[in-house]
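Student: I would love a firmer grasp of how sequence relates to backbone shape in proteins. I am handing you a single protein, as its sequence and its fold in token form. I am told such tokens are a discrete way to write the fold. I hope you can help me see how the letters and the tokens relate. Take your time, and here it is.
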Amino acid sequence: MRQWKLIGTRVLRHFSISARFSEDTLQKIGIDISVVERLVEMLNWTSHKEEEIRLSAAETLSKLAGMKQNSLRIAAIPGAMESISTLLRTNRSLIPAVDEIGEKNLEFDHLSYTLWKFNHFGLLILKNLAHDHDNCGKIGSTRGLLPRIIDFTHAKEKLLKSKNVAHSQILTVKRSLQLLKMLASTIGTTGEHLRREISEIVFTISNIRDILKHGERHPLLQKLSIEILTNLALDDDATERIGGTGGMLQELFNILFKHSEPEDWKHGVTVAAAEALAMLALESKSNCH
């Protein structure tokens, strides 16, 4: 039975990522809600023997979620967000000693690479789902999901400054920042609630500060981080929390005055820092001091 499931998910994955057949395949999968539900259910299969089945289901869903109508169908499945969240696990939650690169080789072992693939597809599914306002609300209300997303924005100094860091490690940070930016920029009461929730999670602001402080080699990560701050600053309490985080305003000023290379302007880091400082100073006496 497991062998047939494996063959089935392999076939769906193959046609879902094929340049020739992808569009038709995803449309046909999307209109058969029982297939979509089955793929979502497979995300919960955490047995090592079912690893490839789960991975194929995750990759197919990441493609499926890229189509608006299908993304709504996925999010409407009871327990879908909880199932997607099971894909997200950091190395630090499994092996705390591997927090900093240099503790092990930069090359991934099999466990790390498999873990990265699940994280990659989990974040990609959520990012695609987050294009819809209502889905952003569901992501925010799923227990424990926001802290997991924010955990992926954690990047140590060695990771950010290394010349030999694996592209996949930076991609994970980038993907999580992109998703967080989308959630923080949500409009209406849903957006207000999300900004409050995001800013109240203890590591959100400090993780961003570390990227601003040590991420000079990665201007795109810095720009995404600053844009998250600008969006969070729409909330008065978040504005005070950001300003009260040691060194945060100083790091924004450092970027504003130190980044003058053409590459920095191309990525918009300096302009983003100026806009963030303006937002944080607006109607905040404590931040102006």
